[in-house]
Structures are given as C-alpha cells and as structure tokens.
Design a protein that fits this description.
The protein has 193 residues and is α+β, with helices and mostly antiparallel strands. It has 4 helices and 8 strands, in the order H-H-E-H-E-E-E-E-E-E-E-H. A hairpin with a 2-residue loop joins strand 7 and strand 8.
Length: 193
Amino acid sequence: RFSQLDQEQNQSLEYAKSELAERHSLVALLEFFLVMYCKDLLPFTIDEKILRYQHVKYPFDLQQLAEDYLQLSDLEEDIYYSLIDIDFDKLEHATEFFFFPESSEHLLFIIDLSISGNLIHGLAVTDQGLYWKLPLQTSHKVKFTDILKLEIDKACLIINDKYFDINPAFNFRFRRFLQRMALLNYGDTKKRN
C-alpha cells in the first residue's frame, strides 16, 4: 500500500515538474518573440536584457531581474533597494501605510510614490509579493503565487481586480515582471510541497 502511495506521489511530482517546464518554455518563447520581432508594434520598449533569464536556473539576482525588466533607473521617483538606505521616518510611514512584509521576505525595491517624498504612498516588491498604496486608495498586498489576473486597462494595470498605476510604460513592463515572478514563485512553492 505504501509503495502505491509513493508511486502516485512521484507521478504527481513528475507531472508538476513537466507543467512548470512547459510554463517556463511558453513565457520564454513569448518574451523572445516580443523583444525580437515586435519592437515596432509594442507601445513601450522591452529591454533585450530580459532574454538572459530564459534558460537560467533560479537562484539569480532578483534585484537585477527587476532592473532589467522594469528599467528602474529611468524612473523619476525615489527608489530604495535596501531598508538600511531609507530614512527612519520614511520607513516608519511605509510600514504604517502599506508595507507589511513577513519575516521570510527579502526586499527587492521600494518606490516612493508620495508627492511630498515621505513614503506614505508607494510600491514595495519583495521576493514573494508586492505591496502598494496609491493616493486616495487603501493599501494592497498580493503574493506572486496568488496572482490570478493581470490586465492593462486604459494604460493602468489591474492586478486581481485591484487598480495599480505609476505610468503607462512602467505598468506595461511591470506586467511582464509580475508574470515572471509569479512563475518563479510557483516553481519555488512546488519544490517546498
């Protein structure tokens, strides 16, 4: 009886591995096609650097992945890559208004979206999910493994029916980044189970 259960579990694990490999292949193919053949058709540029992640096995530098996908250096907003770099008052605002990470999460970056630069509005991305608060909105948290719906609506990004907007170019790139991170975290979750 135990050998039958072991065999069924192994078959289930093999199916999950093949499903994950298929998803990785489809994402890689789509990204290659968009970057190489659709440059003139896309509303915003996608850097060719994202192609370096097609066949690289995780773990790799997730902050560099974010930079390559999102072109963060082109943003006008203040960006922080480490909690140590953030002024204490700003960090206190962020953790009071929108950034509520679990102890196992590692920060990739925080973008200050507040007009006054005090980090009461912003976007925080960790290795496991994202947290954001926009003016006149409540704060939101979405784990990458919980992303069910990503769509662009009038240049704004809708994440699981929650409104997100920095600017049209960032939103467009952020959607691709979220798809990649969801795929990485999906595989990581399967390994842990």
